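$ ./design --mode recover --in tokens.txt
reading tokens...
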């Protein structure tokens, strides 16, 4: 298995990035299901086994690794400011705005937040929050539930967009001509995340407006470091060789590292990344056909949280397995509709004139997890 210099994401392609995105979106649901029921991670499977990381956190890291790889490839293919920004905005904002509006107009009234919607200030703040790619907030929603939050899974999207801007800034400075600089930045961010203690702000529109604009320092260090590691793998794509033996060794080292709190994140960023890109570019025909031409993973991520909240709100006695499977099935339907009527039409407007059959929308990630993900 050898990496390819020209990675295509949408349309017909011979890689498993689409499968991986949908797989990791499903892991977010696996993680959230017990967390939303209990309000904690006592029954979160990966946390119980390793004691360091949840499936949600693992999925977030994987999404950012993949996105860093693909977004940098997209930028270097056409390193111009407006074409790059227009594609990034079009890929993130339309589906996010639609999902946010549905959370305000549909999910909030169904979950007890209708009184707050009668106030003009709520709508004004909501519009500002959408512009900043912040999770929707409607006071009174899901009051009394274990996690009374409307759609907190959206919190990573603003961090994703800031990473887009970072790629553009580094590109304009010519930093990608010096891959070792990017390695140093990635390692530095991850080291600072481990060294400097930080708390994570979980949404709302109280006194933390600066976090809505710049991001919370803790998650910023972690996710930026992970994202830059994805960029590193792209920059060294012609030097990195993927073999079954190396993948097996990486899996063993990753498994052992996940038991160690300080080693878990760096191991995912390196050994985990190696495994992810080996799978993505391997010649596994079945995987390469899953979520290939039509990528529903973004929509699955955007809608899974409110769907699961509503299921628990109206059917509180659902077993965990049934709750998770129902959430995944309905979220896939919403993701399909989002792809057909929001994401794909917008991307078609941005087709390159020299390749009218191609829609270039490099990966965008969207994961979410409770609290520290």
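writing sequence...
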């Amino acid at each position: 298995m050898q990496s390819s210099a020209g990675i295509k994401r949408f349309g017909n392609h011979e890689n498993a990035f689409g499968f991986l995105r949908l797989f990791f979106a499903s892991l977010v649901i696996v993680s959230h299901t017990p967390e939303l029921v209990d309000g904690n991670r006592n029954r979160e499977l990966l946390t119980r086994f390793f004691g360091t990381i949840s499936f949600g956190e693992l999925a977030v890291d994987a999404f950012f690794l993949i996105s860093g790889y693909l977004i940098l490839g997209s930028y270097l293919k056409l390193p111009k400011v407006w074409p790059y920004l227009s594609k990034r905005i079009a890929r993130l904002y339309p589906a996010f705005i639609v999902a946010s509006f549905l959370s305000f107009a549909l999910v909030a009234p169904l979950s007890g937040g209708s009184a707050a919607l009668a106030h003009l200030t709520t709508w004004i703040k909501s519009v500002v929050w959408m512009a900043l790619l912040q999770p929707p907030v409607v006071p009174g929603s899901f009051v009394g539930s274990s996690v009374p939050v409307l759609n907190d899974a959206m919190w990573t999207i603003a961090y994703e967009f800031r990473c887009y801007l970072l790629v553009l800034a580094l590109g304009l400075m010519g930093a990608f001509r010096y891959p070792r600089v990017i390695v140093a930045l990635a390692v530095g961010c991850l080291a600072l995340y481990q060294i400097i203690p930080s708390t994570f702000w979980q949404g709302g529109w109280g006194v933390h407006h600066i976090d809505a604009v710049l991001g919370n320092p803790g998650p910023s260090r972690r996710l930026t470091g992970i994202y830059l590691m994805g960029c590193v793998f792209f920059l060294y794509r012609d030097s990195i060789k993927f073999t079954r033996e190396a993948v097996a060794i990486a899996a063993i080292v990753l498994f052992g590292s996940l038991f160690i709190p300080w080693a878990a994140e760096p191991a995912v960023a390196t050994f985990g990344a190696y495994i992810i890109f080996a799978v993505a570019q391997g010649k596994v025909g079945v995987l390469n056909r899953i979520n290939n031409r039509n990528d529903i993973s973004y929509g699955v991520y955007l809608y899974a949280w409110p769907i699961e909240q509503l299921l628990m709100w109206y059917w509180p006695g659902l077993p965990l397995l049934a709750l998770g499977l129902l959430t995944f099935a309905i979220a896939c339907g919403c993701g399909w509709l989002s792809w057909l009527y929001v994401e794909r039409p917008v991307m078609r407007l941005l087709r390159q004139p020299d390749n009218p059959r191609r829609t270039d929308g490099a990966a965008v990630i969207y994961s979410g997890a409770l609290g520290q993900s």
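exit 0
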